[in-house]
Amino acid sequence: MAADAGDYPVPRFIGIGFLKERIVVVVFNEPNESTIRIISLRKALKHERTHLRNSSETNWERIDKMVDEDIDTSDVPPLDGSFFSSAKLRMPEGKVPVLISVDSDVMEWFKTQDEYQELINSALRVFAETHKI
User: Fold this and answer.
1) CA distances from 79 to 18, 24, 82, 83 (A)
2) CA 106 → CA 64, 67, 74, 78, 133, distances in Å?
3) How confident is the model at residue 7 (pLDDT cuts 50, 70, 90)?
4) Shortest CA distance to 106 belongs to which of 29, 14, 42, 16?
5) Does the pTM exceed 0.85?
6) I need a surface site. Which of 2, 41, 90, 121 has the fewest CB within 10 A?
């Protein structure tokens, strides 16, 4: 969704979605074709989480209270030898060390999070997968 960019020369965009088990809001822009600049990424506020959860008819309160025994798996076929004989193992590619410039306030926020490097990688992955052609 395009954001009101005010006096900024480059349009800003706002995204909301899942990052691992968290619902997050990201503000970003694309100053040129080869650059995506994350302006901010934060945990979604309660009213934003409610909005996202209300975008489906799922009873999230019921889901949150469920334990494994409550889940009906009767329509799930067993993972037997025939499944594994045709299954393909797909491992993620290794990480590549990079040096990037990040706004100091953005980096400070990430560093306050647990496993912040993994969180940055996840944020970039969500953005990249959203914009695949």
Assistant:
1) 28, 34, 8, 6
2) 31, 37, 46, 45, 28
3) low
4) 42
5) no
6) 90
